[in-house]
Specification:
107 residues, alpha+beta, 12% strand
């Protein structure tokens, strides 16, 4: 999709993707294509009970923060022994000053 994937990783309940956003796609269309194609591939591998949640979080970083982000993605299992995914996500929403209603965040 004319995007460079620096790193993809996560745990059993979420995934992190460090990538560039294609200049010809908006963020929502890009994530929709990622979810659609990966769901198809996972089902072709024989996994029948898989689905993405409806929403997603997308955050931008500067080039100077990339190495720190890649390290963070590479060490997800260790990180989540200290902080849950929910705590992590709430922290990102606060850091990026995103006003949200908790009832719409988790499905």
């Amino acid at each position: 999709m004319d995007s460079h994937a620096y790193r993809i990783g996560g745990t059993e309940d979420h995934v992190h993707i460090a990538c560039t956003l294609p200049r010809i796609l908006c963020q929502s269309d890009f994530l929709k294509k990622i979810k659609t194609s990966s769901s198809k591939w996972i089902k072709e591998q024989g996994v029948r009970k898989f689905s993405w949640q409806n929403g997603y979080g997308a955050f931008s970083i500067g080039q100077s923060q990339l190495s720190q982000l890649l390290h963070y993605i590479d060490h997800q299992l260790e990180h989540h022994q200290k902080k849950s995914f929910e705590e992590e996500y709430r922290g990102l929403l606060k850091k990026y000053e995103i006003d949200y209603d908790e009832s719409y965040v988790w499905d």
